């Protein structure tokens, strides 16, 4: 028997609310933003747009939960404090704050384009999918062979220093691949010496380019959001930290030749 959200959350004066269905905005996924930086997530709810879409006093926020189709993660209830020409100033309320990041809602979506809708047209149809024991903090480590993650997903993992990922990646050397989804170009790199994959990728997360010459040129011109929008990471090989550095370097050169990442990618040597 399904449980309606209205049995868990009591909304008084429902016509004081808009519902925010937060989805991919063309460059970032709101789920990654929510995990990475709650202040940045609050800013998503202060978005105004040309029509002042969040035109009511309160915002009931849901985040598309990409791991399970047709579900949304509860992102809080915000109050619009002030309306400025280009944005709204909002504050997170205490209303049902214990459910933030924990309450998973089943609902196909608004059925039309847009972010903000009248809550009364959707609230009755929101169904409980799951309540997590703890607030969602990002993906669990998926195994070395299954890494094919976008920059924003990894960014949220690295900013939090998620222990399962950190423990796995700081204890291996290896060869990795970065693909630019904008143009298909590839960059093959490696981590050796005393630095594991975690340390090497931390540099990319911090800079957007990891100080690689060709990637640095792009980020210097386009900004870090280019990396967030286009870069995807995967591991080609991983080895024990005891592995001789010469082996890692030789394997890196092999993958550069195999993937032609010099003539058709971002590798210069």
CA-to-CA gap between the ends? 61 Å
Structural class: alpha+beta
Low-pLDDT stretches are none
Mean pLDDT: 94
Tell me the Rg in angstroms. 22 Å
Percent in strands: 25-35%
Tally of DSSP β-strands: 11
Helical content (DSSP H or I, runs of 4+): 25-40%
The largest sheet, given as strand count, sense and whether it forms a barrel, is: 7 strands, mixed
SSE succession: EHHEEEEEEEHHEEHHHEH
The outline comes out as: elongated
Continuous helix count: 8
Characterise the protein shown here.
With 269 residues, the protein is an alpha+beta fold. Helix content is 28%, strand content 26%. It has eight helices and eleven strands. It has helices spanning 30-36, 38-45, 151-160, 163-169, 197-207, 213-222, 224-230, 245-259; strands at 17-22, 58-64, 71-83, 88-92, 103-106, 116-118, 127-131, 148-150, 172-180, 186-191, 231-240. Strands 1, 2, 3, 4, 5, 6 and 7 form a seven-stranded mixed β-sheet that branches. α1 (30-36) crosses α2 (38-45). The longest helix is centred in the C-terminal third of the chain and has 15 residues, at 245-259.
Record keyword descriptors for this entry.
269 residues, alpha+beta, 7-stranded mixed beta sheet, 4-stranded antiparallel beta sheet, 28% helix
Please write out the topology.
Layout: E1 17-22, H1 30-36, H2 38-45, E2 58-64, E3 71-83, E4 88-92, E5 103-106, E6 116-118, E7 127-131, E8 148-150, H3 151-160, H4 163-169, E9 172-180, E10 186-191, H5 197-207, H6 213-222, H7 224-230, E11 231-240, H8 245-259
Parallel strand pairs: 1-2
Antiparallel strand pairs: 1-6, 2-3, 3-4, 3-5, 5-7, 8-11, 9-10, 9-11
Helix pairs in contact: 1-2, 1-3, 6-7
